[in-house]
Amino acid sequence: MERSDVEAERITFLNRQKRSKGAYVLYWMQQSQRSEFNHALEYAAHRANSLRQPLVVVFGLTGDYPEANLRHYTFMLEGLEETGASLQARGIKLVVMHASPPDAALAAASEASFLVCDRGYMRHQALWRAAVAAAAPCPVVQVEADAIVPVETASSKAEYAARTLRPRVHTHARSFLTEPAPAELRKSSLDADLNGMDVTDTARVLRKLRADRSVPSVTRYYRGGTSRAKELFETFLRDDIGRYTEDRNQPHAGAVSHMSMYLHFGQISPVYLALRLGEVGRERDTQKAAFLEQLLVRRELALNFVHHTRNYDSYECLPRWARETLARHRKDRREFRYGRQELENLRTHDEYWNAAMTEMKFTGYMHNHMRMYWGKKILEWSETPEEAFQTILALNNKYFLDGRDPNSYAGAGWVLGLHDRPWKERPIFGTVRYMAASGLERKCDIKGYVEEMKRLRAGATQPRATAG
Questions:
Q1: What percentage of the chain reaches a pLDDT higher than 70?
Q2: Which leading EC class covers this enzyme (predicted)?
Q3: 91 has pLDDT over 70
Q4: What per-residue confidence (pLDDT) applies to 467?
Q5: pLDDT band at 5 (very low <50, low <70, confident <90, very high)
């Protein structure tokens, strides 16, 4: 077999099928929606060369993906169009089937000698891969392509907090910060007899999908695709990395990378980001370490959480101390109470919160410091903590481009005590961490942020990420 330089810890055989006499090697692309820095793709390419067969890539596109809507589909299709073109340039056919992801994989696997899939950590993603492995007529191999340190390598259990995972991932990170060498395909698959959807016509695809159209696309603010992700990251490294530690909690300052949505759809590799960050001069070491804390420790803490926590989307996923303290304060008086409809329509008394919700609804993004405040206020204003947890998740997954992600569930949990510790006791929150409007006023130019969001809502301005 032609040697692949993909680390062994990234590779997992999901079944014990022997290689069949298929016509091609199949890469079932679902999570890692890119043609570069993709360990699963390159592993499949090396396998195809070893078997002297072409490589075909299949993607299952369904209109009822859990909680997805027009906003998410548009961003994803923009990325798939670019990925398809770049795969074609390598002699690899991308077949986008209008089918559920596992059905698409199994349909294409009927003529495959070997099937490679990437990895997703959400419950339904793991079930899809298990179903395909059980039914496929050929070997199925899963390759981790969207984490720096594979989750089992980092830890065998759910970690309590960032401080417990941090030394583990840093111990292993250097071994996994390598680019998977692109393989030159010896045989083209462009003439493969497999029909799929034309993803170059986004509007037509969206009509065929009949997807939820209740939340509009945000192409005006954020466009999908690997090339766009790289442009934004280069802008961040050029203009903003020098003030990252000072300004990253300033919602009006724009000193952020905007990579979360691209990481969510697998349009950019975390390994690529970490390696590119490492090329920045040593005079930025403090800022680089702060960014790597978010990319490596915090992001992979979320992967650890959903992988080791079956009920990650349930209130019961919270640590016992948090549930107990919130239960003791369940009947505390709430000065303000808002239902989900009032929140979605920005009908609260808090102009800071309304500004954050404006950014979320109009752009699909919210500055992380405001996300924390946004979530804490929902807890403060909800009838029960259980209601708050579900409201946070519902709004997060509906409006954010990076919603429906391990970070979404870990973030919602953090609002109510996950990956945190007890703090000073107070009404409603008990010993769960509290955030006050006065903290925003003290730490950042929150009035400037409010004014910017008013202009954005009026159509007079755009977030910095759209520049260039």
A1: 97
A2: lyase
A3: yes
A4: 41
A5: confident
Fold of 315-457: DNA Cyclobutane Dipyrimidine Photolyase, subunit A; domain 3 (1.10.579)
Instruction: Say if CB 428 and CB 329 are below 8 A apart.
Output: yes
Task: Over range 419-446, report the average pLDDT.
Answer: 96
Q: Do 315-457 and 1-146 fall under one CATH topology?
A: no
pLDDT score of 465 more than 80 = no
For the segment 35-89, what is each residue's pLDDT rounded down to a tens digit?
999 999 999 999 999 999 999 999 999 999 999 999 999 999 999 999 999 999 9
**Cα 67 to Cα 47: distance, rounded to the nearest angstrom:** 35
| Euclidean distance between the first and the last CA atom of the chain, given in angstroms as a whole number | 45
Taking the C-alpha atoms of residue 365 and residue 464, their distance in angstroms, rounded to an integer, is: 12
Instruction: Spell out the domain ranges in the chain.
Output: 1-146, 147-182+225-308, 315-457
CA dist 271 and 256 (Å) reads: 18
363-370 mean pLDDT: 94
Question: Which of 304, 260, 256, 289 minimizes the C-alpha distance to 418?
Answer: 304
Rg of the Cα atoms in the chain: 22
Query: Which are the contacts of 349, defined by CB distance < 8 A and separation ≥ 6?
Result: 336
Binning pLDDT at 50, 70 and 90, where does residue 466 land?
Answer: low
Burial class of 377 by CB neighbour count within 10 A (0 to 12, 13 to 18, 19+): buried
Write down the pLDDT at residue 2: 54
Q: HSE on the CB side for 184, CA within 13 Å? A: 0
- By residue count, the chain amounts to 468
Quick check: 105 and 60 in contact, CB under 8 A?
yes
Mean pLDDT throughout 321-342? 97
CA atoms of 56 and 75, how far apart (whole Å): 23
CATH number for the region 147-182+225-308 comes to: 1.25.40.80
Answer CATH for 1-146 from 3.40.50.10610, 3.40.50.200, 3.40.50.1000, 3.40.50.620: 3.40.50.620
Q: Considering only CA atoms, which of 334, 263, 300 is closest in space to residue 410? A: 300
Amino acid, res. 287: Q
Nearest residue to 165 (alpha-carbon basis) of 355, 301, 36: 301
Cα–Cα distance measured from residue 235 to residue 241, given in angstroms and rounded to the nearest whole number: 9
Phi-psi sector, 37: left (phi>0), alpha (psi -120 to 50), beta:
left
